[in-house]
Amino acid sequence: MRRMAILCLAAAMLGPLALAPAGAGCQRVTATGRKAFIPLGWEEEIALGREAAPELEKEFGGPLKNLAVQAYVRTVGERVARSARHPDMPALPYRFTVLDSDSVNAFALPGGPVYVTRGLLEHLATEGQLAAVLGHEVAHVNARHGGEQIGRQMGLQVLIAAAQIALDHGEGGADKARHAETLGKVIGGLVNLRYGRRMESEADHLGLDYMVAAGYHPREMVHLLEILVEMGERRPIEFLSSHPNPDNRLGAVEEQISEKYPNRGGRVAEKEYHREVINRLKTRK
Question: What pTM was computed for the model?
């Protein structure tokens, strides 16, 4: 809280230059209800996410060429995203993509791009667990965690300049090289973004609500976290470096289920997941 107050004070002292994007600054985030320092407006976050997407995709092997698996994951993601709309929040251009990487990971960039790796899909057992992953990542987008976290890592002027360059699609004439360097710094930060405990807890809380609203069984979120805990005990996995503390988060998710969804059932879809994802990945060339 003290850090956020200091950031708000600094932004106020910097004045209009620091808060150039519309709606930027200290504000209450619609999805979480928490007041946070958000340096960029939604339009700028969407632009940065769009610019960062090709770099992230390249780093993780590019999109999986199996179009049937892509379509299945996209369908589940869109189903969860439809349940994740909040009043007073713009319609975001969510995009769900499977990356052809053995790493066990999932990511969300500001403004809508959501990714899950082939390596993670191979360790899931049900469509409900996939919905839990995608709900969690959509929650990071809606809660504006990417914009908030990158704002802490970068100077305000650098971040805002990068957002404006992204909106202008990198146009800059004689300043093109400098603009590319500025944008590259921020994109590098987005690709390697790490979340803290509070943001992970918020994403779990919102993601659980989203998946349940989409018709999935709430305990599939518990089963997902149990899988991650078990995998982390055997060997380090990439997902836990950017999404830490699944063992600590398990108790909070269990408590949320007992309070809000004690008798709620829902879709699990184990057979469908194995047919549409596991079996297709096993036979891929």
Answer: 0.87
